[in-house]
Fold this sequence. Notes:
By secondary structure, this protein is an alpha/beta fold.
Amino acid sequence: MHILLLNEYYPPDTSATAKMAAQVVETLARHHRVTVVAGRPSYDPDEFYPFALLRRDTRNGVTVERVGSTAYPRHRMRRRVANYLSYLALAVPRALAIRPDVVLAMTDPPVAGIAGALVARLARRPFVYNIRDLYPDMALGGDIVRPSWWVRRWEQMHRRALRQAARVIVLGDDMRNRILAKGIAPERVVIVRDGAALPAAMPDPADPAVRKIAEEIRCGFPFVVLHAGNLGFYGAWGTLLKAAEMLRDEGAGLVFVGGGANRAALEASAANAPNVRFVPFRPAEQVPHVMLAGDLHIVTVRSGLEGVVVPSKLYSILAAGRPVLAVAAAESDAARIVVESGCGLAADPDDADAVAAAIRELRHDPARLEIMGRRAREAAEKYARVSELQRFVDTIEQAVLEKNGGHHLGS
């Protein structure tokens, strides 16, 4: 069958969504024809493309069609919105001309699911919706927008897209519960996690090059609590900084690796904190070194956003066999996985005392940290990415079979 994916970001964009989109469609392309309609690279891309109304190329068996959207850097929201709007204005008519067997949409831009549902409805094709972040819930919960008539209209259109979808693919149980609460039939909501890419081997901590990178990241702290990833709107950042303040004289340092919309504000808030440091992103090939540098890794979702965002970085931590502190509500997918697998602890994202107490508890129990690290690797095998990707393929194939009345694909 011919699968069409609508998602603005695609490699050489370097966003998490771009990377996961590539993994999904390259897996699908082993058995089916796949076309991606993306925008010009604008999310910290590895390379930039000159303007062209339509650029077509093939990447790893996938046909990638890039419409001539604006390509402003992502850090300025108004210009990013221009990227979104120009992408949608060009991508929707291009998608209507392709006539695939099924339309798949992700959530870049935030209304991509609504656009995908429209394309599928006009083309009379089944629609599959892969929700990476739940909008407009995330925009409201992250204080990006305020309640208004147009946000209510956005939610109405989004619910219509959800009702139309043959399958809604979500990232965890908490997100599934959010979708079910919107009145969507349970049998159409499928959990497919990002999963863990299991490395054949981790770097040798004794290797001088590995040790050098670890020392740079550890910033001289005896015990490092590490957050590696995007500093976006979803984290309990204030709680983490308050917890760090409580631990300032106890040899525990909080290190943030990476950037994001909230980094500047966080740096300003932590300007006088002696045990908080910010270091830049590392190249992809150094990610395993970053994983080894932390004694305890942080995964965080601010209160009220559980199921709205599901931090995929958890699976990278599990794959590296590192202990985790989930600063997230107990009902969140991240906290549940960490607690049930025994690979770490969970703490209320509104309770800095609880976060500090958890760090203090593990700081003085290296044997327990070692056990948690082993259990993290065991959990990673349970959520292996290769298995999750196959579940994604099976879900799309089943959705098309049902729409075709059970007939064979391509019949």
